[in-house]
Amino acid sequence: MSGGVDSAVAAARAVEAGHDVTGVHLALSANPQSYRTGARGCCTVEDSRDARRAADVIGIPFYVWDMAEEFDRDVVQDFVAEYAAGRTPNPCLRCNEKIKFQAVLERALALGFDAVCTGHHVRLDNGRLRRSVDRAKDQSYVLAVLTREQIAHAMFPLGDCTKAEVRAEAARRGLAVADKPDSHDICFIADGDTSGFLGRRLGTAPGPIVDETGAVVGQHNGAHTFTVGQRRGLNLSGAPNRRYVLSIEPVSNTVTVGPREALAVDRIVGERPVWSGCEPPQEWTPFTVQLRAHGEVYPCRARQHEGRLEILLDEPATGVARGQAAVLYDGDVVMGSATIDATSRAQRTVASQNTQ
């Protein structure tokens, strides 16, 4: 129970369905004042109080579990390390993977519980994840890292309704969080200044900004402050046209910029693939793929080759960043996912690759 409206209604529905429910709030910071303040639905002291009040109204036991050490190691430190490596991580995805459905689930099963129930907007369909009926709130992308075993011990009661319906139900049930705003920010960056947060963790490291020819067109104070596709805040000299970040090279501390069309890629390689909806395809198989949270969906073909996920897009995509997740769908059902490790423009067709 995060302290938001979704998890409160999910808990109430689980009770109504006849389950023996215990509410758990996660304390994710040893120093809560260092995280975001204000009751926004995740991770703050106010959120803990809201979760406890909701549990009281529902009539279930309530506990706070200290996950600060695990959260710092697996989410915060991972976030910093990924940026230092020139990648763009998704901390909410990592939190779902490492905290809510690994650390929490392991502890829950050890204590004799059968499942972890959350307020994520996603459906379960014969043991597979399926998009929420509310596409604007769908969270299947950030849950696509879950394994089949984890999904088998998960409950998502809200996937069959819209956010507006959830709020209306919360009001009918007398839950004070019915009108509580959604949380959108990164919880461990209190002021919302990601660049400043990374600067405090990684320090400043001045380096060049170059164009596609290698000519220096600017300077930066740390490559970790940029992400692929970024246009604002480049402060370039002698740039008559708009330029975008094309790549980040942490070893040489170089940021390369260029025109928007240079961002286009149609070949993606992902590491650590997880196949929750099907067996790993060894041959090129049609799917659709989502490349960022709430991002566009692209028709593609994909296969697993030598332990890695290979994707060929039917049409190029722009702004695809290493470190983000590539999530494969069949219709609205999650088939698999992987962390994007490399992108390029393909020089060969799928047919030619099948002959290898």
UniProtKB/TrEMBL annotation:
Task: Give any GO molecular function from the UniProt entry.
Answer: tRNA-uridine 2-sulfurtransferase activity
Which Pfam families does this entry report, sorted A to Z? tRNA_Me_trans (PF03054), tRNA_Me_trans_C (PF20258), tRNA_Me_trans_M (PF20259)
Transferase recorded as keyword: yes
Q: Where in the cell is it found?
A: Cytoplasm
Q: What is its EC number?
A: 2.8.1.13
Question: Which GO terms of type biological process are on file?
Answer: tRNA wobble position uridine thiolation
Annotated catalytic residues: C95, C187
- Statement: the UniProt record of this protein carries the keyword Protein biosynthesis: no
Q: Which CDD domains match?
A: MnmA_TRMU-like
SUPFAM superfamilies associated with the record: Adenine nucleotide alpha hydrolases-like
Domain tRNA-specific 2-thiouridylase MnmA-like C-terminal as annotated: residue spans:
266-340
Q: InterPro entries per the record?
A: MnmA-like, MnmA-like_C, MnmA-like_central, MnmA-like_central_sf, Rossmann-like_a/b/a_fold
The feature of type site (Interaction with tRNA) is located at H120, Q324
Locate the tRNA-specific 2-thiouridylase MnmA-like central domain: which residues? 196-258
Which domain of life does the UniProt lineage start with? Bacteria
Q: Which top EC class is named for this enzyme in its record?
A: transferase
Q: Region (Interaction with tRNA) spans which residues? A: 137-139
Summarize the protein's role: Catalyzes the 2-thiolation of uridine at the wobble position (U34) of tRNA, leading to the formation of s(2)U34.
- Entries under NCBIfam families matching the protein: PRK00143.1 (NF001138), trmU (TIGR00420)
Q: Which family does it belong to?
A: Belongs to the MnmA/TRMU family.
Spell out the protein name for this chain: tRNA-specific 2-thiouridylase MnmA
* Gene from which the chain derives: mnmA
